Sequence to fold (177 residues):
Amino acid sequence: MKNSSKSAIGGIVAALSLVLMISIAVVPFLTYALPAVAGVLLMFVVIEINKKWAFGVYATVAILGVLFVPDKEVAIMYLAFFGYYPIVKSVIESKLPRVPEWICKILLFNATVAVAYLFMIKIMGLTIDEFDKYGMVAIPMLLGLGTFAFVFYDYALSKLVLIYNMKFRKYFRRFFR
Fold:
Protein backbone atom coordinates (compact mmCIF):
# COMPACT_ATOMS: atom_id res chain seq x y z
CA MET A 1 0.00 0.00 0.00
CA LYS A 2 1.30 3.43 -0.92
CA ASN A 3 2.06 6.04 1.74
CA SER A 4 -0.67 8.29 0.34
CA SER A 5 -3.24 5.53 0.91
CA LYS A 6 -1.90 4.93 4.42
CA SER A 7 -2.14 8.65 5.18
CA ALA A 8 -5.67 8.78 3.80
CA ILE A 9 -6.81 5.84 5.93
CA GLY A 10 -5.13 7.30 9.02
CA GLY A 11 -6.67 10.71 8.41
CA ILE A 12 -10.15 9.29 7.88
CA VAL A 13 -9.96 7.14 11.01
CA ALA A 14 -8.57 10.04 13.07
CA ALA A 15 -11.30 12.40 11.84
CA LEU A 16 -14.09 9.89 12.49
CA SER A 17 -12.71 9.10 15.95
CA LEU A 18 -12.51 12.77 16.87
CA VAL A 19 -16.01 13.48 15.56
CA LEU A 20 -17.34 10.57 17.62
CA MET A 21 -15.74 11.90 20.77
CA ILE A 22 -16.82 15.49 20.14
CA SER A 23 -20.41 14.27 19.66
CA ILE A 24 -20.53 13.76 23.44
CA ALA A 25 -21.84 17.33 23.48
CA VAL A 26 -24.96 16.10 21.64
CA VAL A 27 -25.40 12.71 23.37
CA PRO A 28 -23.96 13.14 26.87
CA PHE A 29 -25.00 9.70 28.18
CA LEU A 30 -22.49 7.86 25.93
CA THR A 31 -19.44 8.74 28.04
CA TYR A 32 -17.88 5.30 27.69
CA ALA A 33 -19.41 4.12 24.42
CA LEU A 34 -18.05 6.94 22.26
CA PRO A 35 -14.36 6.51 23.15
CA ALA A 36 -14.82 2.73 22.87
CA VAL A 37 -16.23 3.03 19.34
CA ALA A 38 -13.51 5.53 18.44
CA GLY A 39 -10.98 2.93 19.56
CA VAL A 40 -12.66 0.24 17.45
CA LEU A 41 -11.88 2.31 14.37
CA LEU A 42 -8.17 1.85 15.07
CA MET A 43 -8.54 -1.87 14.42
CA PHE A 44 -8.89 -1.08 10.73
CA VAL A 45 -5.57 0.75 10.77
CA VAL A 46 -3.93 -2.20 12.56
CA ILE A 47 -5.37 -4.65 10.02
CA GLU A 48 -4.84 -2.66 6.84
CA ILE A 49 -1.55 -0.89 7.59
CA ASN A 50 0.31 -1.83 10.78
CA LYS A 51 0.62 -1.14 14.51
CA LYS A 52 3.12 1.70 14.04
CA TRP A 53 0.66 3.72 11.95
CA ALA A 54 -2.14 2.85 14.38
CA PHE A 55 -0.11 4.31 17.28
CA GLY A 56 0.39 7.47 15.22
CA VAL A 57 -3.35 7.78 14.63
CA TYR A 58 -3.98 7.07 18.34
CA ALA A 59 -1.52 9.79 19.39
CA THR A 60 -3.12 12.29 17.00
CA VAL A 61 -6.65 11.59 18.22
CA ALA A 62 -5.56 11.55 21.88
CA ILE A 63 -3.87 14.96 21.64
CA LEU A 64 -6.70 16.54 19.65
CA GLY A 65 -9.24 14.90 21.96
CA VAL A 66 -7.69 16.42 25.07
CA LEU A 67 -7.69 19.82 23.35
CA PHE A 68 -11.12 19.83 21.69
CA VAL A 69 -13.49 17.28 23.28
CA PRO A 70 -15.85 19.16 25.62
CA ASP A 71 -16.18 16.31 28.14
CA LYS A 72 -12.66 15.67 29.42
CA GLU A 73 -13.69 12.32 30.94
CA VAL A 74 -14.28 11.04 27.40
CA ALA A 75 -10.90 12.32 26.23
CA ILE A 76 -9.11 10.79 29.24
CA MET A 77 -10.84 7.41 28.77
CA TYR A 78 -9.71 7.37 25.14
CA LEU A 79 -6.19 8.44 26.10
CA ALA A 80 -5.91 6.06 29.05
CA PHE A 81 -7.41 2.91 27.56
CA PHE A 82 -9.81 2.77 24.62
CA GLY A 83 -7.49 4.43 22.15
CA TYR A 84 -4.51 2.13 22.41
CA TYR A 85 -6.27 -1.06 23.56
CA PRO A 86 -7.19 -2.33 20.07
CA ILE A 87 -3.52 -2.08 19.12
CA VAL A 88 -2.27 -3.76 22.30
CA LYS A 89 -5.00 -6.41 21.98
CA SER A 90 -3.53 -7.62 18.71
CA VAL A 91 -0.08 -7.91 20.31
CA ILE A 92 -1.34 -9.71 23.42
CA GLU A 93 -3.42 -12.17 21.39
CA SER A 94 -0.51 -13.02 19.10
CA LYS A 95 2.03 -13.55 21.91
CA LEU A 96 0.20 -15.24 24.81
CA PRO A 97 -1.85 -18.42 25.28
CA ARG A 98 -5.55 -18.04 26.07
CA VAL A 99 -5.61 -17.92 29.92
CA PRO A 100 -2.58 -15.63 30.42
CA GLU A 101 -3.95 -13.49 27.58
CA TRP A 102 -7.20 -12.85 29.48
CA ILE A 103 -5.39 -12.28 32.78
CA CYS A 104 -3.14 -9.73 31.08
CA LYS A 105 -6.08 -7.98 29.37
CA ILE A 106 -8.15 -7.74 32.56
CA LEU A 107 -5.19 -6.53 34.62
CA LEU A 108 -4.39 -3.94 31.96
CA PHE A 109 -7.99 -2.73 31.92
CA ASN A 110 -8.33 -2.47 35.70
CA ALA A 111 -4.94 -0.80 36.17
CA THR A 112 -5.43 1.82 33.47
CA VAL A 113 -9.00 2.62 34.46
CA ALA A 114 -8.02 2.93 38.14
CA VAL A 115 -5.12 5.25 37.30
CA ALA A 116 -7.30 7.28 34.91
CA TYR A 117 -10.01 7.79 37.52
CA LEU A 118 -7.48 8.56 40.22
CA PHE A 119 -6.08 11.24 37.90
CA MET A 120 -9.55 12.60 37.13
CA ILE A 121 -10.59 12.68 40.79
CA LYS A 122 -7.36 14.08 42.28
CA ILE A 123 -6.18 16.40 39.48
CA MET A 124 -9.31 17.33 37.55
CA GLY A 125 -11.73 17.39 40.49
CA LEU A 126 -14.20 14.84 39.07
CA THR A 127 -16.83 13.69 41.54
CA ILE A 128 -18.36 10.23 41.44
CA ASP A 129 -21.89 10.11 42.81
CA GLU A 130 -21.62 6.42 43.74
CA PHE A 131 -19.00 7.27 46.40
CA ASP A 132 -21.53 9.47 48.20
CA LYS A 133 -24.19 6.78 48.03
CA TYR A 134 -22.20 3.55 48.67
CA GLY A 135 -18.90 4.75 50.15
CA MET A 136 -15.72 2.77 49.51
CA VAL A 137 -17.75 -0.31 48.51
CA ALA A 138 -18.37 1.52 45.24
CA ILE A 139 -14.78 1.00 44.06
CA PRO A 140 -14.81 -2.82 43.74
CA MET A 141 -18.43 -2.68 42.58
CA LEU A 142 -17.63 -0.24 39.76
CA LEU A 143 -14.43 -2.11 38.81
CA GLY A 144 -16.38 -5.38 38.70
CA LEU A 145 -19.08 -3.92 36.47
CA GLY A 146 -16.44 -2.27 34.33
CA THR A 147 -14.55 -5.56 33.97
CA PHE A 148 -17.74 -7.31 32.88
CA ALA A 149 -18.36 -4.59 30.28
CA PHE A 150 -14.72 -4.81 29.18
CA VAL A 151 -14.94 -8.57 28.58
CA PHE A 152 -18.02 -7.98 26.45
CA TYR A 153 -16.20 -5.17 24.58
CA ASP A 154 -13.18 -7.38 23.92
CA TYR A 155 -15.39 -10.21 22.65
CA ALA A 156 -17.35 -7.84 20.40
CA LEU A 157 -14.11 -6.34 19.08
CA SER A 158 -12.83 -9.81 18.17
CA LYS A 159 -16.06 -10.62 16.35
CA LEU A 160 -15.98 -7.31 14.47
CA VAL A 161 -12.44 -8.07 13.28
CA LEU A 162 -13.55 -11.53 12.16
CA ILE A 163 -16.56 -10.16 10.26
CA TYR A 164 -14.45 -7.44 8.68
CA ASN A 165 -11.80 -9.89 7.53
CA MET A 166 -14.32 -12.37 6.16
CA LYS A 167 -16.85 -10.07 4.49
CA PHE A 168 -15.72 -6.49 4.06
CA ARG A 169 -11.94 -6.42 3.67
CA LYS A 170 -12.00 -7.31 -0.03
CA TYR A 171 -14.30 -4.34 -0.75
CA PHE A 172 -12.19 -2.00 1.34
CA ARG A 173 -9.02 -3.05 -0.45
CA ARG A 174 -10.47 -1.98 -3.81
CA PHE A 175 -10.51 1.67 -2.72
CA PHE A 176 -7.04 1.80 -1.16
CA ARG A 177 -4.52 -0.07 -3.30
About this structure: The chain has a mean pLDDT of 93.
